[in-house]
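lol ok so funny story. i was supposed to be doing the assay writeup but got distracted and ended up predicting the structure for this chain instead. priorities right. anyway since i did it might as well share w the group, maybe its usefull for someone
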Amino acid sequence: GTVALLWNEVIREKITNFIMNQSKEQRILNFVLQNAVRGDPCSVLDTIDKYCSQKEWAMNVGDEKGNCLILDKTVEEVNPSVALELGTYCGYSAVRIARLLKAGSYLLTVELNPEVAAIAKQIIEFAGVQDKVKLLEGPSQEIIPQLKKKYEVDTLDFVFLDHWKDRYAPDTILLQECNLLKKGSVLLADNIIFPGAPEFIKYIRNNPRFQCTNYPSRLEYMQVEDAMEKAVFLG
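and the output, tada:
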């Protein structure tokens, strides 16, 4: 898995970027604009999955974990009014979550990289879910404390952690310190085995305020063992 990730994310990507004079994320956007149906979020998701499984690997949650097996099922069960995603990347999971939200509900999605955020914004708009998604640019540790006052968030029903793995644990602690979690709030964390989030797993499973469920899976678009962790806040 490490070798495959190194090849796809470092060596192959750098060579392709140099030859084509554009980023992988820009190539994903172009493929969506040329092949997906505007205003159809499922078409956008299928198109990204096709590109990432057949052309270039990318760190989306992917169709296996994203499909009704884990992410979709969790969002449908929680039926959130206010959701938070940490790690927008190209907007794949934002589109995936937003398409399932009921009327009047919304998703706040946080992305550190402004260039990637600009691409995600275009994909979200192309999918037609921009009315349900607010993209926030900046470090998660700076944005989380601003959610109540600046973005008028009372509490969060659902949080999807899919950003830097070493931020999973501190950001979970920060969400509690900022009183953004209520009884029944659900956290879902991706890639807890590969690349891995050991500090988060240690913290969440040994915290009596959370009830955890593990969902074994595979790394997106690869035959590599991975899993997602669901944690329900007990108050």
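The radius of gyration is 17 Å. Residues 61-233 form a domain with the Rossmann fold fold (CATH 3.40.50.150).
back to the writeup now i swear
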